[in-house]
Known about the structure:
Layout: H1 14-20, E1 30-36, E2 43-44, E3 52-54, H2 56-68, E4 73-78, H3 98-109, E5 114-119, E6 132-133, E7 139-140, H4 141-158, E8 162-165, H5 172-182, E9 189-196, H6 203-209, H7 229-241, E10 245-249, H8 255-264, E11 269-273, H9 275-286, H10 292-306, E12 310-313, H11 316-323
Helix pairs in contact: 2-3, 3-4, 4-5
The structure holds ligand PBG.
Amino acid sequence: MNLPIRPRRNRQSAAIRDLVRETDLTPGHLIYPLFLQEGEANTPIDAMPGCQRWCVRDLVKEAGEAHALGVPAVVLFPRIPDELKTRGAEECHHDAGLVPRAIRALKAAHPTLTVITDVALDPYNSDGHDGLVSDDGRILNDETIEVLCRQALCHARAGADIVAPSDMMDGRVAALRAALDGAGHTGVSIMSYTAKYASAYYGPFRGALDSAPKAGDKKTYQMDPANAREALREAALDEAEGADILMVKPAGPYLDIIARLRAASTLPIAAYQVSGEYLMIKAAAASGWLDEEKVMLESLLGIRRAGADMILTYFARRVAEKMA
Length: 324
Ligand code: PBG
């Protein structure tokens, strides 16, 4: 047969495949989410095999080992004791609280590690919502933003490099930027959860932090999974308000959103491969139904190919070990 065009020629050897590869995945693209708790012990998380809630001492060790393998950044998620959860979520801006203590310990031990913090009230709020809840069950936007600003300032004082508002309140990026700048923290970046969907894939995470809403759901602030144009609207707002990085979450089921934001904005795009995406791969591998390592790498490569510059993933350390 005289076929003039044969795409297979570009796949015929490992060397040629290396030359024509369009997307790369390295530990340098990854952000490692870490759970932490009070005390001296670590607690494995049932629904997230391989993940623990770390005490501060071992959090520092785990983060340091991942960093030594090439992972540039971690993001922190605290399990706050029930007795410290209140309707006003005051513990979120307590300078001696768990997160500020962890930030200080991480920065002291690993000065080149980038420390990112989640800014939202759910781990601290006895209602389990990302915002303050009124007596009649509404999520109070503007009142929440005041508390988020205090939370972000507390993290900045402790030495956080990047704050990541995951609450989806309107106008919070502008408010956080003004609050940070007003206090002299002009170098602290904002990684905004721009398109955060009201997703069932967050289930294992909420179990790990005991942070599920006590009543209702998060649909009045997180986005409807049916919507894509709305993500562009959120992105335009976050960009205008001064965000440094835009995030899409979850990642795998929302690759179209990653690609659209990549095309619409010149800002760096982050994507969060969330707890449910992680668990699905772990569960299928545990049953012997999938090759965990190959699917892990393919899932992350797909997120990079869609346009994510960086990926938050519970696999960060595993990927770095594999590539070491
Ligand atoms: C809280 C927050 C959530 C996640 C990150 N930050 C949960 C939620 O919005 O209910 C989910 C991460 C994951 O599932 O891995 N604001």
